[in-house]
Amino acid sequence: MAEHRSMQRAALLDAARTLLSEGGTEALTFPALAERTGLARSSVYEYFRSRAAVVEELCAADFPVWAAEVSAAMAAADGPRAKVEAYVRTQLELVGDRRHRAVVAISASELDAGAREKIRAAHGGLIAMIVDALEELGHGQPRLAAMLLQGVVDAAVRRIELGAEESSAVAEAAVGMALRGVCG
Predict the structure, then answer these.
(1) HEC profile of 41-81
(2) Which end of the chain is more exposed for a tag (fewer CB within 10 A), N or C?
(3) C-alpha to C-alpha distances, 68 to 49, 55, 80, 135, nearest whole angstrom
(4) What is the largest CA-CA distance in the chain?
């Protein structure tokens, strides 16, 4: 029975990723989750109490995987300047990944305080990854610089999501800004 519940929960999360990726937050509804998984709508409520609970669990499952990919790219980079580039470039490469697209599709204003706090904490961990490289570069305020650098990444993610420019052009511009802005 526990294995069946675990499989159903995983199917619901996968359906939620797909819905968010395809249609944004408006598409993530319990009726749509039920339809995608073949469950009765009332059964979805047995697994999640709200849309925010689905989002919280998606973030808990997907954000560590995304962060690990960024961390691995940074670890493979040679020197602090290359680590900054890997930090930016890897996040932007992940924009097309369904796990990332699902998390990006969530507007913090639509979530309850608990979900927003979990997302903030996850982003804080991502920002902490780059602080050491900025310290190595001699930045006077590495934590502030890391937060601003993540702002550049977040803005680039939004541009890529809009599709207004080629993602490669957005990535090159963001990497250029990052390297000139924090590496001098």
Answers:
(1) HHHHHHHCCCHHHHHHHHHHHHHHHHHHHHHHHHHHCCCHH
(2) N
(3) 29, 20, 18, 21
(4) 58
Q: Which residues contact 38 (CB under 8 A, 6 or more apart)?
A: none
d(CA 30, CA 48): 9
Residue 104 is encoded by which pair of tokens?
A: 């990006």
Q: At what angle do helices 142-162 and 113-136 cross, to 10 degrees?
A: 120
pLDDT at 56: 81
Handedness of CA 24, 25, 26, 27 (dihedral sign): positive
- pLDDT value, residue 125: 81
Q: Enter the tokens of residue 5.
A: 């519940």
The structure's pTM equals 0.78
CB 51 within 8 A of CB 29: yes
Name the band, by pLDDT with cuts 50, 70 and 90, for residue 84. Answer: very high
